[in-house]
Design a protein that fits this description.
The chain is an alpha+beta fold. It has helices at 2-26, 29-39, 41-44, 56-59, 61-65, 69-75, 96-102, 118-130, 170-205, 212-244, 256-274, 293-310, 357-362, 369-379, and strands spanning 82-85, 91-94, 134-140, 146-154, 162-168, 253-255, 277-281, 288-290, 316-322, 330-335, 383-389, 393-399. The protein is built from 14 helices and twelve strands. It is elongated.
């Protein structure tokens, strides 16, 4: 009995040491967990005559003849693809996640029959030869682009096999690219007005030092550039605040009828200047939704203002609120302008995306308005649907 307990204690220590060493080498919690499970496999298999709680007869012939039974049970529930390989790189087992990701590989086939990435095959070859853990990052272009962090570790103990784990980090890499693009775009948007202002300041300090007319004109342009930067910073701060509370749904109650009415009234002077009429179509009674009144005001201000500016040629912007029995409310903002080319529609809510850069800047746009709208509606568990046809205008629909 004492010897049996000592042997179990040794296996537990080996498992802990294996997990710790793999984590230190690879910094992967999943790989460390796999190493720990592998080291514990001797404890999970029937112990034969040395175990006080089991006998060879109780263990059964199937369990004794299949040393991978416990490993298969352990990895079957993993949501990451896992392949078990023998010392020559032939397949012993693949879990359901691996079958879903790569298709079924015949048992006994070499891994290269299905996994063709040179980086993975080179890593596997090196690990099979040395017994050391390894890792690499790959991108699979088909059927859709996925990025995997691939790690391999040798089983500890009597079992002679290797565990190959694919961890999908596609979303992490996508977010990294978005952050990089965001910083690059924000820097570009700020660089242009800053360079303009520096040039005007140098001119005012030099050739235009005593030119009153030039000073007045340049100071006016500089004032416009400062306002542009201020709008950009304000929108960046709005996005930052929205991202911080993106998972917190608002719990207030908002009546959309007076809210849309106040937005239309506030934008009436702008519409008059542009020669556009805002036409409201709203029910007589209240239309209640769960939300934040200030944020929803920002949504409709942005959408109606855009319709007035970019659909100016149509002379009319229709704002329609519908709330049929048994169906969630919808708000349509429709202009009758030139419309948006079809290829641009899916990207309109991306940060800094513009169909026409010069037109957007001339209308004092920052390229962040629809991104803010999307973030607000996501927090409200609502969505934005965009439909547009060249020559007939665009419709932006908010569905709660």
């Amino acid at each position: 009995m004492g010897a049996w307990i000592r042997r179990r204690g040794i296996h537990l220590l080996i498992a802990a040491a294996s997990a710790a060493s793999v984590y230190l080498l690879s910094a992967s919690a999943s790989a460390a967990m796999a190493a720990g499970i592998i080291a514990l496999l001797p404890l999970l298999r029937p112990a034969g005559r040395t175990a006080p709680a089991a006998t060879p007869a109780a263990a059964g012939p199937a369990a004794r003849s299949d040393p991978l039974a416990s490993a298969r049970a352990a990895f079957a529930g993993f949501d990451s693809p896992v392949l078990l390989l023998n010392a020559t790189g032939n397949l012993l087992y693949q879990n359901p996640a691996a079958i879903h990701a790569f298709g079924e590989i015949g048992k006994g086939q070499h891994i290269s029959a299905r996994i063709r990435q040179p980086a993975v095959l080179a890593m596997v070859k090196e690990s099979l030869a040395s017994g050391d853990p390894g890792s690499t990052e790959i991108t699979t272009p088909m059927p859709s682009e996925n990025v995997y962090l691939v790690r391999i570790v040798k089983a500890q103990g009597a079992a002679d096999f290797f565990v190959l784990i694919f961890r999908d980090i596609s979303e992490t890499r996508r977010i990294d690219r978005m952050r990089t693009d965001f910083v690059a775009n924000a820097s570009h948007e700020l660089r242009t007005p800053l360079a303009s202002m520096r040039g005007f300041i140098e001119t005012l300090q030099g050739p235009a030092r005593n030119d009153a007319k030039a000073q007045e004109r340049f100071l006016g342009i500089m004032h416009e550039q400062v306002n542009r930067m201020s709008r950009l910073v304000d929108d960046l701060l709005s996005l930052s605040r929205l991202e911080l509370k993106a998972r917190l749904a608002p719990d207030g109650a908002v009546d959309l009828v007076p809210l849309i009415g106040s937005v239309c009234d506030a934008l009436a002077p702008l519409a008059d200047d542009l020669g556009v009429e805002i036409v409201r179509h709203v029910p007589a009674g209240p239309v209640m939704v769960q939300g934040d009144a200030d944020e929803l005001t920002q949504v409709f201000e942005n959408l109606i203002e855009n319709a007035c500016k970019y659909g100016q040629e149509g002379k009319t912007v229709d704002v329609t609120l519908t709330a049929e029995d048994g169906r969630p409310p919808e708000v349509d903002i429709r202009d009758h302008g030139t419309g948006i080319p079809e290829e641009h529609v899916p990207r309109l809510t991306e940060r800094f995306y513009r169909v026409n850069v010069e037109s957007s800047r001339s209308k004092k746009g920052t390229g962040l308005g629809l991104a803010i709208v999307k973030h607000i509606l996501t927090r409200h568990r609502a969505r934005l649907v965009i439909r547009s046809e060249l020559g007939k205008g665009s419709t932006f629909t908010v569905r709660f």
